[in-house]
């Protein structure tokens, strides 16, 4: 799947939180079947913003 198909058009984001989640993580996670990420932590806020995308990942068997 391409990023275009996931409706990701702007790949430059400033700031944090909801703008990045709405513009990138949620559309991409909704179409994903796997998600690998190396990070030190997830804030509760970031998980709340990405929740609908994670739901799509789970529905896709990821």
Structural overview:
- There is one protein chain.
- The chain is mainly alpha-helical.
- It has one domain (1-62).
- Helix content is 48%, strand content 0%.
- The chain has helices at residues 18-31, 44-59.
Topology:
Elements: H1 18-31, H2 44-59
Helix pairs in contact: 1-2
Question: How do you describe this structure in short?
Answer:
This protein has helices at residues 18-31, 44-59. It is an all-alpha fold.
What are its keywords?
mainly alpha, globular, 62 residues
How many E-type strands? 0
H-E string: HH
Low-confidence stretches: none
C-alpha end-to-end distance: 15 Å
- Rg over CA atoms, rounded to whole Å, is 11 Å
Q: How much β-strand is present in the residues? A: under 5%
Q: Portion of residues in helices?
A: 40-55%
**Gross geometry:** globular
Structural class: mainly alpha
Looking at how many chains there are and whether they match, the oligomeric state comes to single chain
Helix count, DSSP H or I runs of 4 or more residues: 2
- Average residue-wise pLDDT: 73
Main sheet characteristics? none
Please indicate the count of domains: 1
